[in-house]
Write the structure tokens for this entry.
Amino acid sequence: MTRPGEFTYRRVHRAGRELLFDCMTKPEHLARFWGPAGTSTPVDGITVDLRPGGVFETVMVNDSDGSRYTMRAVYVEVRRPEKLVWTEPDVEGGMTTTITFVELDDERTEVVTHQTNVPPMFGRPEARDGFLTSLDRFSAYVETLSGGSSG
């Protein structure tokens, strides 16, 4: 059950959790898919200090007008390759994102993204649709690496 200000997204990828964990934590991978459709995230706009208390920052660029959006977070938990947790203290209420990589059979991995303290503006249908395009971009990128399919 999802509570107000809380969202859960699930995707299954035909890839191992080590690869998926790397995709979520290495700038060269993040630059290939991070952000909703219509944005890009240059590798030099990504900072990953992968440890509890370390910085996770991305600068997304709107492809149509060049406007920039910076996401600043702090890692709370890093358990390779099972789990990543970060919080965005600058977002109202300190939005927290937990990504869990669950190994399935047939070399598939379920990636569960759970967000808490999500501000109401991020819950609007257009914002959620934008987030889903981010997950689509991630799936498409993983397919190029693994030669598999996602669902």
